[in-house]
Design a protein that fits this description.
Layout: H1 5-11, E1 22-26, H2 37-40, E2 41-43, E3 50-58, E4 61-70, E5 74-79, H3 85-97, E6 112-119, E7 125-139, E8 154-160, E9 163-169
Antiparallel strand pairs: 1-6, 2-5, 3-4, 5-8, 6-7, 7-8, 7-9
């Protein structure tokens, strides 16, 4: 038989990872602390990695050699609450990097660390990534409109970082 449903299901350990079972945390720099971020972060990503390609011509063909690795930006979607606590924390953090009026940095230690953890359906942490040297690069506007009934405000924050590390990984081979 070319297709066997039981073999397919058996190949998915734990019947597949669920994208809704995650938690994101940011260790905000001093002065921009926010303990609610873990709860107000509605969406994030497990990070990727890209290698540049160096093409070297050789006898009419191009030989491809792995180049430098780059780490794509990390974007989180935040649910806004009426305290604006998380929004204020990001604004404070970005102001410490470069103030609007003074055009100066008031926080020389402006980077932070963050993590995103994937959980199993049992509640066990099965994969965690730690972002090193993280800082916000873009704080999106919040749309407000009279026709946005029955919705909560949301906005995205795009963060840059130096690299990520895998903190723990389960091997379910």
């Amino acid at each position: 038989m070319p297709f066997n449903l039981q073999q397919f299901k058996g190949a998915l350990v734990g019947e597949g990872a669920r994208g809704t079972l995650f938690e994101a945390q940011i260790n905000f720099p001093v002065g921009a602390a926010d303990r609610n971020f873990t709860f107000t972060c509605r969406a994030a990503q497990l990070p990727g990695k890209t290698f540049g390609v160096i093409e070297v011509p050789y006898f009419g063909r191009k030989v491809k050699i792995a180049g430098d690795q780059t780490f794509a930006e990390w974007t989180v979607t935040v649910i806004n609450d009426e305290s604006f606590r998380t929004r204020n924390a990001f604004e404070s953090w970005m102001s410490g990097i470069n103030q609007h009026a003074g055009n100066v940095r008031t926080n020389p230690a402006y980077t932070a660390n963050a993590s995103v953890t994937q959980y199993a359906k049992t509640g066990e942490a099965i994969k965690q990534y730690k972002f090193v040297g993280l800082f916000p690069a873009d704080l999106a506007p919040i749309d407000v409109a009279w026709d946005q009934n029955d919705t909560l405000e949301e906005y995205t924050v795009t963060l840059q970082y130096q690299w990520w590390e895998t903190v723990n990984t389960t091997d379910a081979a």
